[in-house]
Structure formats: structure tokens, C-alpha cells
Amino acid sequence: MTMIDALPSIRSLTRRLLPTKAATPSDVHDLIRERAAAVPPMRPRVEIPVCDVSPEEQALVALHERGQHLARQENWETLCREMIEAEHGRAKTPGLTPVAQVLAEGARADVLEAAKSAVSKGEPRRAFAAMASLEINLDDMPECFGFASVVAMAHVELAQMWRGRTPLRELSPQIREAHDRHMRAASQLADRFEPFAADAPLLAMLRCAVISADVAPSERLADDFEDLIDLDPTCPEHMCAFGRQLLPQNLGSWEALELQARRVATNTSDIWGSGGYTWVWIGALEQDIEAVRRVDAETFTSGLHDILEQCRDQHMANRLAAFTGVTMAAGQNRDASHSRIAHCFGWIAQNHLREIHPGLWAKAPAPWYSANNEPEAEDAAARGKARALSTLASYFAPQLGQHGRITFGENGVEIV
């Protein structure tokens, strides 16, 4: 085709793209406004250090690998000794995770990985056979609560694999039997030991993990979690786990959730102020965002202040910034309680946040993020960093317009 041959088609395309009449200045301005509206506004630039691998993540990896190594070497005596010492000393990672818990997770990791394949193929017998490599050692150390906890929690996690997210009543008979069999095995091991006599929060945590296997789980829920929190009140995750179980769709009710949150706050006030109330509700809200309609927002907010007064480290600042900024993200059609809690992100970011820990932002439940607005990232760390920077930029944008800069440093936040 020559250039002359192409002219008719070019003219035809031009007629379709250009107006049929001369454009007026008003038409031009309307077109400019229309195209400008289609381009998303620039967000302010956020300059804040990013800690790609936080001290908490370093500790978790090291402890997990330690437990896994000792299990592979079948050095159970050393594993038990280290777990018991950690329990009696209430040893924690920088993010307040119990050291013994992480050692136990590493020790059972290989067995669970082997059993996962059997679960995925619907082979209960093969899953139990994988557990035999652990259980065979129980007779050699019947008094070691550390090793018993490793085996029992492996059974609990296998039961959870069989169940997935399906309600128990909807499981097929074969799957329900596999689930129940693992839970019974875990419960029998838990019954061998008394948490207070052993001075072991890990055993109290195990008792809480097998509550659902009881014939009347709701009746023992409060007592078992009260024991756990009494034994280890400095661990926030125990209180969060209590909040999850207190949801009506689990083993509790709205009334019980509010009552127990206030009881936990009273019992832990010497450590957390009113933060115990907040931790219990954080656990509930991270699982069911609609629970916000029931929370006392003022008490919750007071608890946030008390938590950050007690724990001034960047792990806690990131944990609560991600919760308020991502999980509780403010937006349209939010009630007063929801907005009150979501807007706490501002003072947490300004007064406490000095660096980003991407892992915490990546793990934060994000009910308001969809496939369309979730930051694209190849891995969890990149996704967490994108979430954090996007949330900070969105929050500070109204103060800065389109071209501002926010700098986070040791002396606070500078807005330019």
C-alpha cells in the first residue's frame, strides 16, 4: 500500500477522532477538566526508613531454626531444657512472642510439612503415620511438658488443616473424624499437666487451643483464658486470641466479649493500663470488622495510648499503626466508633512511628482492600511496604496538597 492509498483511511480515522464542528474555548476547558479528573492526583512523597527485616523477624527465624535443628538431630533433651528455661523465665522476642512457643513451632515444622501432603490428598491414615515419628518419643520423656506441647500442638494444627475454614457441622464424616481424632489426642496430652504447677504458660495456651474438643467449650472458655493471661500477662497475643474466641460466631457473645475485655483490663492494669481491653477487642476486630459496632471507642483509644506508653519500640508502633491504618481504614459509611478508632492512625504515626516494618503491614487483615486497590507487590515485604507508604501518603495528603513531602526522623515528623 502506498501513502496515497492510505490517505482515505487516515481521513476516516481523523473524522472519527475530531469534533464535527469547531471547538469553542469552553469545549477545550471542559475536555481538559475531564482528562485531569481521569488522572489520579499525585500523593505527597513519604520519606521514612524501612527496616526490611525487623528485630522481631530475625528473632523468630533464629528460634524457629533452632527448634527445627534440635528436632532433626532428635536432641529432645536439649529442646525440652531450653523450652522449660524460656517458660520459667517468661522469655520473649522483641515483639513479645514467647520464646518457648517459637521453639516448639520449629520442632514440629517438618512433621507438619510431611502431614500436609496427606491432608491435601484426603488420607487420614498417612497423616497419623507422620505424627508417629514424634509420638514415639513421648514414652521416653513422660514428665517433659515441653515435648508434650510440641506433639499436642502438632495435633491441633493438623486438625485445623483438616477443617480449613469450613464450619465443623459442614465437614464430611471422614474429614470430621480425622479432625476430631487429632483434637482428642491433643486434649489427652493437655490433661497430663497442670499449667500453674508446671509454671508454664505454654500448657495454658495448649488448654485454650483444645477448648473446642470439650463437650461444653463455652463454659470453660473464660476460666482457661484467665489462667493463660494470669500466667503470662505481658504477651498481647494471648488477649487477642481470647477476643477471637469470644466472638458470637465462635464460642462467645457480644455481651461476653465486652464483659471479659473489661475484666482483662482490670486484671492487667498494672502492666497495660486499660490496654487489656484494647488487646481483646483487637483480636475480635481483626477477625470480624463488624464487631466495631459493639466496642467502646473511648476506652479502646485510651488503651492504645496506654499500650504505646508501655511499649515505645518500633515493633509496637508499626503493629498499631497497621491495625488502625489498614484493618480499621477510615472511609465512607463508617459509624462514629469506627471513625474514632481509624483516626487514631494520625497520632500514632506522628508521635510514635519512625521506621516501617513491612512484615507487620503485610500481615494486617485488610477488609477494605480489594483486588483493585491492594498495592501490587511480588512478596509480602514489598506488599507491606507499599501498604505502609500508601496509607501514610493518603493520610497526610490533605495537609500538603499534591507536591508535599513528609519526612520521618528520630525527632518526629517534618511536613514540607
Key features of this structure:
416 residues; mainly alpha; 21 helices; disordered N terminus
Fold topology:
Blueprint: H1 3-17, H2 25-38, E1 45-47, H3 55-72, H4 76-88, H5 99-120, H6 124-135, H7 145-163, H8 173-190, H9 195-198, H10 201-209, H11 217-231, H12 236-245, H13 254-267, H14 269-272, H15 275-287, H16 297-310, H17 314-327, H18 336-342, H19 344-351, H20 358-363, H21 380-400, E2 405-409, E3 412-415
Parallel strand pairs: 1-2
Antiparallel strand pairs: 2-3
Explain this structure to me?
This protein has helices at residues 3-17, 25-38, 55-72, 76-88, 99-120, 124-135, 145-163, 173-190, 195-198, 201-209, 217-231, 236-245, 254-267, 269-272, 275-287, 297-310, 314-327, 336-342, 344-351, 358-363, 380-400; strands spanning 45-47, 405-409, 412-415. It has 21 helices and 3 strands. Strand 2 (405-409) and strand 3 form a beta hairpin. The longest helix is centred in the first third of the chain and has 22 residues, at 99-120. By secondary structure, the chain is mostly helical. It has 3 domains: 44-51 and 313-332 and 347-416, no CATH class; 74-232, no CATH class; 244-311, no CATH class.
